[in-house]
Amino acid sequence: MDEELYQAFITESEESITQLNNSLLSLESNPDDTEAIDDIFRQAHTLKGNFGAMGFDNAATVAHAVEDLLDEIRHERLDVTAERMDLVFDGMDLIVEILHDIEENGESTIDPTDTVEEIRAAVEDGGDAGNSNPAAPDEADRESVDLDSLAADCVDTDALDATTLTHAHVELDAGQMKGVDAGIFLSSIPEDLDVVGANPNRDAIEDGEYGDGFDLFVAELDATVVESELGGLWKVSTVETTDVSDALAGGDEAADAGDTPAAESEVDAPASDDSEQSVDADGAVDGDSDAVSADAPSVDDGSEGDADEAESTESDEEPESGNEKKKEARSISAVKSVRVDVDQLDELHELVEQLVTSRIKLRNAIDVGQTTALDTLDELDKISSNLQNTVMDMRLIPLKKVFDKFPRLVRDLAREQDKRVSFKVEGADIELDRTILDEISDPLMHVLRNAVDHGIEDPDVREANGKSRTGTIRLSARRQHDTVIVTVEDDGGGINADAVREKAVDKGVATREEVNQMPDSEVYDYIFHPGFSTNDEITDVSGRGVGMDVVKTTVESLDGSVSVESEPGEGSTFNIRLPVSVAIIKVLFVQVEDREFGVPIKYIDEISRRDRVQTVSGAEVIVHEETIFPLIRLREALEIDSPEPDDGMVVRIRPDDRQVALHCDGVTKQEEVVVTPLQGPLSGVGGLSGTAVIGDGNVIPILDVSTLELPADGEQAMREFDPSQLPDTAEEAAD
Fold first, then answer.
1. Under DSSP, is residue 479 helix (H, G, I), strand (E, B) or coil?
2. Spatial distance between the Cα atoms of 438 and 487, rounded to a whole number of angstroms
3. What Cα–Cα distance (Å) separates residue 546 from each residue in 535, 573, 706?
4. Using CA atoms, how far apart are residues 450 and 524, in angstroms rounded to an integer?
5. Which residues contact 516 (CB under 8 A, 6 or more apart)?
6. Is the pTM of this model over 0.85?
7. How many Å apart are CA 485 and CA 468, to the nearest integer?
8. Are residues 26 and 408 in contact, defined by beta-carbon separation less than 8 angstroms?
9. Residue 334 banded pLDDT, cuts 50, 70, 90
10. How many Å apart are CA 628 and CA 729, to the nearest integer?
């Protein structure tokens, strides 16, 4: 199998499954959502066709069974219930399992029989027998069928400009995937064969809903030619043709009889056919899906795309300008959206890192007096900066890729625990570096599981507390400077700070005296400690104390931070701060004795002289807008054994990152650097996040402001701070 085609199939299937899951959730919450049901059938039909065309019949069989159950719901023969949606989701889970099996082994041996039988049983027990589309009559019935009347019903004879009309009854030697075989047959019909009607209609035929055979009506070719042309096509076992040109004479009467024939004809009235509308809309809007289908036609194998194209050429009613506009829209979408091989992207990214480092070395090596060389270097600066920005933008991917997986997760957890949860997502279009996006999925999953399990109360408890029986969990993201803040907020019972204190003492994480002195906001941080859980009973969801530890460890490894706020009885909020991109960052070089360290610019709020340092509650602080920022002397925090100078500079960190200020001997410059994370035994060193090689070849440590040790008196001052303690004047502060 062609590797490019194989990867396109895997990627497109994953996207379809994610979108289908979310549309199913929309349908479950609002059974009257016609937009959701249309999208569901479009995605399910695509999945079924793609799996069948690629030869993975087990997944295609499951998709077909799911589609049949949903068809009963769409036609209001079955109601949307939680139990039926559970069956649908079980089917989707099995398709995902099969897809993963295919991705790992190149094939799948998973037997879907049990799941398919359960879904089929739900259709047979709850729905009306038979298809919504009329099937072709069997051999016994066909003798009694008036073919002229059938032609009048299936063909808009009033609009058809033809003198000859031939009926062809086609039977296929179809396998288990009747719809796929029929789709391939339809797409292989020669262009000179003008098919002007079908019974059942094309959508039903492609769905495999045609019994032993189906009827086609062909204009302007006699029966012998039609039989010869169709007889050699895909899977055809028999073709019986009959001249029904007499039906053309009754075209006016048939047209006057009602609008039903026109509605059934996908050729002459495409706008009235729901399925065809969906395909057109998808083609015009969803550029990614069309791009894959265009580049890898074997995925559809003609079952959808080619058949639709054939239908559009058969239609005489649709204006040519409309077709041209649709083609143009598809072309524009395809050009704007391309798939990039991840390995190539990583290689390009590595080259840019080398280019940035070389640029820095070159600038440091050039004599200031060499004007020409400096001009050339300025040009190199501009080129490399543009290249860097382009590559970084290429690596940015919307959070939607991760966020779209969570509605199903929350729904299933709530169902397992008999809770009612409304899940809302905001800011899914915010972009993050691909590397960060890959890593952040698991931490967010743990936070959301925590919100459902620990946060949202049982419906009866909520009602007793005067709340709605349905809890709300909100997942949102927003951009702030060079960071992205992802927030998970719930309106549940909040975190019991006293319970956390008790657990911290029991586990020996802190003493009774320490936790009693801590405000609740600091106590909440203990939930991120390894093995820490307030649940005494271990369940499938929680109790092992692993999840929140994973959150903190992973986020900090990405040079981010996580914090939690909670109000008893009102809910909790988890804030995860992440850098937009990795590797190449801007840093401020600070000096301590004769050594230099880098502080990421994204963390810095202000740089000032040492004379702004004040003493509050016995601790050195910087005061800004009636807020104190305890001072961390880098000489002490980094254990540099040398005398403290009388002067120096203070770098105040943004309070959202950490409410502290750093004291150093001086600041030198700002520079872009390539950061290499600390590896091996050094990976856990507090206060350091990585290293960077600068232009002169020296290695500069990059500070981690979140783990630099804060003096005990600084922590105490923050706990006891009262704005009324602040000096009224600068003179008082100096004294």
1. strand
2. 18
3. 12, 19, 22
4. 14
5. 501
6. no
7. 28
8. no
9. very low
10. 16
pLDDT of residue 422: 92
Tell me the β-bridge partners of 623. 628
Per-residue pLDDT band at 329 (split at 50, 70, 90): very low
Calculate the alpha carbon distances from 606 to 207, 609, 619, 624 in Å.
Answer: 65, 10, 20, 10
What's the maximum distance between 2 C-alpha atoms anywhere in the chain? 111
Number of other residues whose CB lies within 10 A of the CB of residue 575: 15
> For the stretch 257-294, what's the b/e string if a residue is b when 16 or more beta carbons lie within 10 angstroms of its beta carbon?
eeeebbebbbbbbbeebebbebbbebbbeebbbbbbbe
The angle formed by the CA atoms of residues 68, 70 and 72, to the nearest 5 degrees, is: 75
CA distances from 687 to 90, 558, 577, 598 (A): 47, 15, 18, 11
551-586 pLDDT tens trace: 888 888 787 888 899 998 899 999 999 888 776 788
Counts of helices then strands in the chain (DSSP H, E): 30, 22
Q: Residue 477: what pLDDT? A: 95
Per the listing, tokens 């002490």 go with 636
Alpha helices in 237-319, H assignment, sequence order? 246-249, 251-256, 260-264, 274-285, 287-295, 305-314
The dihedral sign for the CA sequence 352, 357, 363, 366: negative
Structure tokens at 307: 């058949």
Q: What is the CA radius of gyration of the chain?
A: 34
Query: Rounded distance, CA 181 to CA 670, Å?
Result: 65
